[in-house]
Amino acid sequence: MKTKFVCLMVVLSLVFGICGMQSAQAAQSYQVKKGDTLWKISKKFRVGLSEIIDANPQLSNPDLIYPGQEIHIPRLKSVKSVERQVIDLTNQERQKAGLAPLQLDWQLSRVARYKSRDMRDTGYFAHRSPQYGSPFEMMKSFDVQYSSAGENIAVGQTSPEQVVREWMNSPGHRKNILNGTYTYIGVGYAKGGSYGTYWTQMFISK
Asked: Which residues form the LysM domain (predicted)?
């Protein structure tokens, strides 16, 4: 199994900057239908099960939901828009190099989003998370299957264009982006915390 990760830190005004996701997101309402489970609902809306549970503290037992019950679905539209831009820019760079585009894996993006939030909330900048371990251990704990994987992380960038440009100007990050073995990508963007913004790219082949 091949694994690779690279980090990029930018110093701005003598402090490290970070790009990221809003700590609180608005939610939409969904009425439970017959046969629904939170897992099925999470798949329907492409939102993590744990994110739905966190958005519904009124559920005393997440395994027991009933038709007609109202469930709150976290809205991630603005965050996903930024993440989508990073993916599009990454694929533009791959196209220039004659490589096939990476496909978005929403579950992998969910893991990358958790990684960016984890760095923001726990106050670290590294590939190894105090809570989740290495990127590859983290992917496995979220049931992401892969034959090879890589990770890029960055802090301090204020736009998708800037972060992709700086990754491309860094040999290690560029190598991940232009790795012809990878077929899927997930991007996580998190805003807030001590430094402001955090970015994570995760790559896999299956």
From this structure: 28-73
List pLDDT tens digits, range 89-139: 999 999 999 999 999 999 999 999 999 999 999 999 999 999 999 999 999
What is the C-alpha to C-alpha distance for residues 136 and 5, in angstroms, rounded to an integer? 10
* Residue among 35, 36, 166 nearest 89 (CA): 166
Of 192, 152, 115, 141, which is closest to residue 3 (Cα–Cα)?
152
User: Has this prediction a pTM greater than 0.90?
Assistant: no
Q: Please tell me the distance from the alpha carbon of residue 149 to that of residue 198, in angstroms, as a whole number.
A: 20
The full set of domains in the chain, from first to last, is: 2-22+76-205 (3.40.33.10), 27-74 (3.10.350.10)
Adjacent-strand bridge partners of 31? 70
CA dihedral 29, 52, 89, 7 (to 10 degrees): 150
Band (42; pLDDT cuts 50, 70, 90):
confident
